[in-house]
């Protein structure tokens, strides 16, 4: 096998095995930073050895064995530096390392507890959200620092600092490598789900940059969500999040045209939606419902996504059901963003005037002050009411707030369309058409429900 082929094989094996490897080593050493360091050492050994000796039959076990030997060396050197008194501690550390097949020890735990522990450690609330995301993608996603930096459009040095500081913070706080129990589980599970969904959302609609979406991040979030669903099968919100991501990911191919320009939900060719992902999402939603507990925020959002997926055409969408689901979502997870999404659904169910009325109280919400989708939604509704001058101003305000180049171009395009409509509504003498006459004309029906 050529060196380049071996390198690709090593990278593929690392992507599949690194999370389990780091999780097991963290359990053995009690230090997530040391666990990753030992795993990285094993990766380097593979890159050096496999081109000469060939890829082993069980690459994952080979990596674990290599990491084990490096762990022994680490403990030996540490013990030698501590004199005789600490030698006993070294022997105890060494005794914790398995003598049998390194991966076979995982069979003792039917739910793969090491991976679950690693998820809860990487997403611990003691870390900032940025640090949680970076550490999760590094430890559980197997992404390199430069890949994470490229995905979130931040300098590589920034990501590297976040990861280093995260490891130091976990060590300083003595965060135990364990799955929390009781009420603490619910609190910590929410933090894990939040990180996964944040990664997915950044892939689904990029915050900044030249791309409308980054499908690779969606795929990574889905992979993590599916793993978590198998590790925590009795948690309905886990299945709710997986359902939501599966259904939304089904639209990715339809969300951009050949030039990479955005196509909003009601304008999409639904034949391009992925039926397999929709079926998987519906199955995950049913799994959440079958657990017999009330749906939480992710389950309710998945139910909203399911309403869109069931509609064969945009016109068949059950907007009354969607409004009801947003009412339920606002009750369990109230926020200005939820109210903004609800206003879009209200506009589709009861008309743009009703939607605009629902939006007005949000104008003073501090959380939405710099949120570009508030003026964007307001502009869409004003445009449908043929209040084009106001709509144009709102589109331009939204364009100034967004950091995504594709979205900015779309918003400015809509602002220009409003200007054109204003100019076309004058008669031969340059007189504006009276508002009452303009209101009788058929409004523009283009809108979307992708403000989530």
Description:
This protein is mainly alpha-helical. Helix content is 67%, strand content 1%. It is built from 20 helices and 2 strands. It has a two-stranded parallel ribbon. α1 packs across α5. The chain starts with a helix and ends in a 13-residue tail after the last helix.
Radius of gyration: 26 Å
Task: Give the % helix.
Answer: 55-70%
Biggest beta sheet summary = 2 strands, parallel
Number of helices: 20
Strand content: under 5%
Structure keywords:
mainly alpha; disordered C terminus; 452 residues
Give a quick summary of the entry:
The protein is an all-alpha fold and 452 residues long.
Secondary-structure map with pairings?
Layout: H1 3-29, H2 32-53, H3 59-80, H4 83-95, H5 113-122, H6 129-139, H7 145-152, H8 156-172, H9 183-204, E1 208-209, H10 215-231, H11 236-249, H12 275-290, H13 297-310, H14 319-332, H15 336-350, H16 352-359, H17 373-384, H18 388-401, E2 403-404, H19 405-424, H20 435-439
Parallel strand pairs: 1-2
